[in-house]
């Protein structure tokens, strides 16, 4: 079954709102194993909506259309769809009752303009909207269906998941699509593509497709996807390829699917029974904030110090070295924060966020330190990008440095 998506609304074209509806519907379709080849956006113009619907009908078994079901004159999706169906609009008393009930609950009188929303193309089935006035509509066109849903995301979500997806599935055999995401840090996207080229090439003719997705401070993802009759079969096809890809990636692979770098670090700390404290200069609290994002981080994360100035590095953390852009400074920050906050491990960041160089140190020159009861180490990194990127890359680089350290040593 092929289901494509059409989002109606001039504000989508003007960049006034993000088209999160397509993203949501796309995810629901993939999860249900329904193929989708095209997501389009069109303004509130009857000729162009009609053309988009007719074009999409030629290449789809079903179309989900969001937006343009409201009461105002520019909401015309319902009327245009009736034209495409070759059907009259009829008054639907159940829809009118639902609307009246909603206005009564809000203690407001229903404007006459809302009556338009009770008009339903002949032959269409209503999907009741318990959260708003615009009903969803299932509109048959021959053996195909156009599903109309409101643009308001929280009104649209339950209609798609509870009614439309099951309806599409009941019409034909779906293909199960499984995607496995391997998350990496430390290898550039071009180098990843080179190292995994054989798998990408093989994917052209085999069932397991390999792709890349750069996700900024979350690293670069390697995506393996396969389609088969069932999810189990698709997983079984992916498994051996995943095994081989992991062997090529080595230490650069830090997690899978929903893992984040910080959730992996927290798991490692929990397994080893160690606590951490963080001293940050250029990252200004980002590391602590990312750790706190992970539920249960309080088991291992004791706290942090944002030691942005030289004075705070010296007075609060006991940094003695003069050059704040050095491995020694990162080491002393890590030692200082572990000592003062009483943690097993200290992790630190210092360096030049940019945009300008500082005392001969270029933007992106960063030092990361780790201190434990037995060991203190630091490493210099040269990171690319503007100020925001440098700070974000420093954050993931610091966690990655700690992850590799924790994976290679058992601190006991
Ligand atoms: P209503 O009954 O509220 O008028 P509607 O079906 O007419 O709903 P629109 O008027 O097109 O929908 O959009 C209503 C609101 O829904 C928009 O202001 C916007 O905030 C949101 N919205 C519409 N389309 C999208 C989209 N594709 N992605 C995310 N949000 C959207």
Features:
alpha/beta; 6-stranded mixed β-sheet; 5-stranded mixed β-sheet; 17 strands; 24% strand; elongated; binds adenosine-5'-triphosphate
Describe the secondary-structure layout.
Blueprint: E1 3-8, H1 10-13, H2 20-32, E2 39-42, H3 46-59, E3 62-66, H4 77-85, E4 89-91, H5 93-105, E5 119-121, E6 125-127, E7 136-141, E8 144-149, H6 153-171, E9 176-184, H7 189-195, H8 197-205, E10 208-214, E11 220-228, H9 231-249, E12 253-256, H10 261-272, E13 276-280, H11 286-293, E14 301-306, H12 310-315, H13 327-341, E15 345-351, E16 365-371, E17 376-382, H14 387-408
Parallel strand pairs: 1-2, 1-3, 3-8, 13-14, 13-15
Antiparallel strand pairs: 4-5, 6-7, 7-8, 9-11, 9-12, 10-11, 15-16, 16-17
Helix pairs in contact: 2-6, 3-4, 10-14
The structure holds adenosine-5'-triphosphate.
Adenosine-5'-triphosphate (ATP) binds next to helix 2.
Task: Please describe what this structure looks like.
The chain has 412 residues and is α/β, with parallel strands linked by helices. The chain has 14 helices and 17 strands. It has helices at 10-13, 20-32, 46-59, 77-85, 93-105, 153-171, 189-195, 197-205, 231-249, 261-272, 286-293, 310-315, 327-341, 387-408; strands at 3-8, 39-42, 62-66, 89-91, 119-121, 125-127, 136-141, 144-149, 176-184, 208-214, 220-228, 253-256, 276-280, 301-306, 345-351, 365-371, 376-382. Strands 2-1-3-8-7-6 form a 6-stranded mixed β-sheet, sandwiched between helices. A 5-stranded mixed β-sheet has the order 14-13-15-16-17. Adenosine-5'-triphosphate (ATP) binds at residues 7, 9, 12, 17, 19-21, 66-70, 75, 132-134, 150-153.
């Amino acid at each position: 079954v092929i289901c494509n998506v059409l989002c109606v609304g001039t504000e989508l074209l003007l960049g006034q709102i993000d088209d999160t509806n397509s993203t949501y519907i796309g995810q629901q379709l993939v999860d249900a194993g329904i193929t989708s080849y095209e997501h389009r956006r069109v303004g509130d113009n009857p000729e162009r909506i009609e053309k988009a619907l007719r074009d999409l009908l030629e290449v789809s078994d079903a179309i989900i259309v969001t937006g343009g079901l409201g009461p105002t004159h520019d909401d015309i999706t319902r009327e245009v769809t009736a034209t495409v169906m070759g059907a009259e609009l009829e008054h639907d008393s159940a829809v009118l009752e639902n609307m009246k009930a909603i206005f009564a609950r809000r203690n407001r009188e229903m404007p006459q303009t809302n009556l338009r929303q009770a008009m339903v193309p002949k032959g269409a089935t209503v999907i009741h909207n318990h959260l708003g006035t615009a009903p969803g509509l299932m509109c048959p066109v021959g053996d195909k269906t156009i599903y109309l849903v409101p643009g308001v995301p929280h009104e649209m979500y339950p209609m798609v998941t509870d009614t439309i997806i099951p309806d599409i599935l009941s019409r034909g055999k779906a293909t199960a699509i499984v995607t496995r995401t391997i998350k990496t840090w430390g290898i550039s996207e071009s180098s990843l593509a080179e190292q995994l080229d054989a798998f990408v090439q093989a994917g052209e003719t085999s069932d397991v497709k390999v792709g890349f997705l750069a996700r900024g401070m979350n690293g670069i993802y390697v995506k393996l996807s396969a389609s088969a009759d069932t999810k189990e079969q698709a997983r079984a096809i992916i498994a051996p390829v995943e095994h081989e890809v992991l062997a090529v990636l080595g230490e650069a692979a830090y997690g899978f699917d929903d893992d984040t770098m910080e959730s992996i670090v927290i798991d490692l700390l929990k397994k080893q029974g160690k606590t951490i404290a963080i001293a940050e200069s250029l990252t200004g609290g980002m590391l602590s904030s990312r750790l706190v994002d992970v539920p249960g981080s309080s088991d291992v994360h004791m706290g942090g110090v944002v030691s942005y100035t030289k004075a705070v590095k010296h007075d609060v953390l006991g940094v003695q070295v003069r050059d704040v852009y050095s491995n020694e400074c990162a080491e002393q920050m890590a030692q200082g924060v572990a000592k003062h906050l009483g943690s097993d491990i200290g992790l630190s960041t210092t360096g030049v966020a940019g945009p300008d160089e500082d005392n001969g140190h270029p933007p992106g020159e960063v030092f990361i330190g780790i201190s434990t009861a037995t060991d203190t180490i630091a490493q210099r990194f040269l990171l690319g990008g503007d100020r925001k990127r440098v700070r974000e890359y420093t954050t993931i680089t610091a966690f990655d440095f700690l992850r590799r350290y924790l994976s290679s040593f058992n601190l006991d």
